[in-house]
Amino acid sequence: MEVIIQPTYAQLVAVSAEIIRDALLKKPHLVLGLATGSTPIGLYEALVRMHKTEGLDFSSVTTFNLDEYVGIRPNHPYSYHTFMKTHFFNAINIPTENCHIPQSTAEAHEEFCENYEEAIVNAGGIDIQVLGIGTDGHIGFNEPSSSLGSRTRIKTLTQSTLEANAPHFGGTVDAVPKMAITMGVGTIMEAKRCLLMASGESKAEAIAHAVEGPITAEVPASALQMHPHTVVIIDEAAASNLKRADYYKQAYANKQKLLSHRE
């Protein structure tokens, strides 16, 4: 696990966008796993700017989103279908048929989940999986106690998740859907590379547990310690509880020196 600590949110976004841009330039048929929430918005804005100013081409990219609420329409203003169109898809040249987002209904969900997993495999697997992290250490909607080998399925959301998402539903917890369909931890772990982004003091405890704590289902993100190619990109506030923060900074600085010498 590589931990990259940047002074600000804007700088962690810049590093994250460069990783995806470089991967896309090397592999035009890149398969991206995408996340929603406030943290990735800056990443999508940066990639849109690269598309418009540098001509970064998404025409051959395939995407798979982590999750979606159960029981709301795709065109609901707070659905993740709407989120992705608003913040990313409508501003780049990606074909609609290349964008995969879990369904928002529980009907025939077991068959859908199996098909979603199969579609990822048929696409060649996810090259880079973008992730955020909840204050309780969840990734996707894999709440604490989720199996670390879990696959795409429906999960009941915890009270803390409902409260965290209430501002998006008019500030009312009762308005937040109680269930979501999500990629499993096991599905996420099969991505070739994972890119976990976090910003702010509210994520500091979760990041510390995920990066330096024991590997446990109580902190689903801790499973990423076992992934061979995980990059955690965080700002100083999110890094404030890390015991080895100085070491991570030195390791990243040394890596940049090596890269500059090669150039």
What are the SSEs and their pairings?
Layout: E1 2-6, H1 9-26, E2 31-34, H2 41-54, E3 62-65, E4 67-69, H3 80-87, E5 99-100, H4 109-122, E6 128-131, E7 153-156, H5 159-165, E8 179-182, H6 185-189, E9 193-198, H7 204-212, E10 230-235, H8 245-262
Parallel strand pairs: 1-10, 2-3, 2-6, 3-5, 6-9, 9-10
Antiparallel strand pairs: 4-8, 7-8
Helix pairs in contact: 1-2
Shape: globular
Under CATH at level 1, the class stands as Alpha Beta
Strand order of the largest sheet: 1-10-9-6-2-3-5
Measure the end-to-end span. Answer: 25 Å
CATH fold-type name: Rossmann fold
Number of folding domains?
1
If helices are DSSP runs of H or I spanning 4 or more residues, what is the number of helices? 8
Count of DSSP strands: 10
- The level of helicity is 25-40%
Report the sheet with the most strands, covering strand number, pairing sense and barrel closure. Answer: 7 strands, parallel
Question: How much of the sequence is in beta strands?
Answer: 15-25%
CATH architecture: 3-Layer(aba) Sandwich
| Radius of gyration, CA atoms, in whole angstroms | 18 Å
**Order of helices and strands, N to C?**
EHEHEEHEHEEHEHEHEH
Average of per-residue pLDDT values: 95
Helix-strand makeup class: alpha/beta
Spans where pLDDT lies below 50 across 5 or more residues: none
What does this structure look like?
This protein is an alpha/beta fold and 263 residues long. The chain is built from 8 helices and 10 strands. The chain has a single domain (2-262), classed as 3-Layer(aba) Sandwich (Rossmann fold). The chain has helices at residues 9-26, 41-54, 80-87, 109-122, 159-165, 185-189, 204-212, 245-262, and strands at 2-6, 31-34, 62-65, 67-69, 99-100, 128-131, 153-156, 179-182, 193-198, 230-235. Helix 2 (41-54) links the parallel strand 2 and strand 3 (62-65). The radius of gyration is 18 Å and the shape is globular. The mean pLDDT is 95.
